[in-house]
Structures
1.
Amino acid sequence: MDAKAFELSLEQQFQLQCLQKEFQDLERDQVIDYLVETMQQIMARDNLIRDLMKNELF
């Protein structure tokens, strides 16, 4: 796999900078809640991708 596939686009880098600024104003518990919610969404996405790949292979 091409190493560039793991690099963030300029738009993604900008989005990260915006999030970083937003998080500076949040309380610790708010940041933890956001992190947990984000991880849950990532796991659900991974499950969806895995299911789609499984259905495509068989």
Note: The two ends are 24 Å apart (CA to CA).
2.
Amino acid sequence: MSAVDFDLSESVFWARPMAEREEAFDRLRALDEPAFFEEMEVSFAPKGPGYYALVKHADIVEASRNPEVFCSGGGGATNIPDMPAEFAEYFGSMINMDDPRHARLRRIVSRAFTPKMVKQFEADVETAAAKIVDDLLAQGPGGDFVTDVAARLPLKIICDMMGIPESDYRFVFDRSNVILGGFDPEYTGGDMTTVAERLLTAGMELQQLVQDLAAYRAEHPTGDLTSSLVNANIDGERLTMQELGSFFILLVVAGNETTRNAISYGLRLLTKNPDQRARWLRDIDGHAPRAVEEIVRLASPVNFMRRKVTRDFEMNGHLYPKGHKVVLFYWAANRDPEVFDDPYRFDITRDPNPHVGFGGPGPHFCLGAHLARREITLMFSELLRRVPQIEGGRPDRLHSSFINGIKHMECSF
């Protein structure tokens, strides 16, 4: 801590202007070894031993490739404090597990997210994106791009995949906001002492929603993902109802929040970089693949994942003792000048682009990356063709250390 005068564990750090956050991570990357931070006090868990902040691309890639050393279990990957046992019932899905449990769950659910399966959903995504732009044009400028456009597409696709009716869309949207609301008073109600209670309640309600549906689908199967999962028998293995509920929470939270924020940041990036907008408009389909990767790189919707060191391990010249925590700051790695030329520049033709916006290499690489890419691609294809000059105003950012989110953003066209 002698090298820096800020603390990544303090909630106030994540409320700072983006330029100050960028400067802070630039300074951390310039250090000779990873900075160590104390953990903050939280109401729902004992204070932990602290953590090393991994901010360099090389460190995060190497740690991701060694899951047997840098494990996701032992308290959870999505939070820096160790997750209490009562949280695991709702938030203990694959993302917070190690092999062999992680491999078993991923084997059961991964068949729904292969490129071949995503291709089957493509027509639904195209139809949904077109309807969203229809509604945007009918409403006219001045609306909230996040709630009116960016949030609607992934929410509809995930719910439709699972067989969740449209009448429950808002219910799912609100609960996922609570789960990933971070320190934001819009979702915490301004009272941080009740955060644990709110998280558990939202998790319980989402789990109950899908378990009720799964119980019905077990007797009345359809073509939706819930039917496939509740009736799946792969090498004699089935999901328990608790596993299905936790997976649904992971799916709606990760699938909705991250894609929503990538789309929102994408519009803001195009607004601030009219040259890149003009370039994309000249060949919408041709530039789309690289443009989407560049949006994900700079959006980095998930700021970090946590790992725990299982044995003494030396990595890139630094010794990590057994039992210590490391936090993989993907947002920082995606701006590492050792890997990305002019890293803060938005360049839709950037190639290569080895970002870690979907996580680092290894068993925890994002299961829904194919689907997220298609949703972002088709949403911008529709927007650029039909509302080519749409712009996003000043974003109202989520106050969170975990999600690099935009809550609201006015749009004009």
Note: DSSP finds 16 helices and eleven strands in the chain.
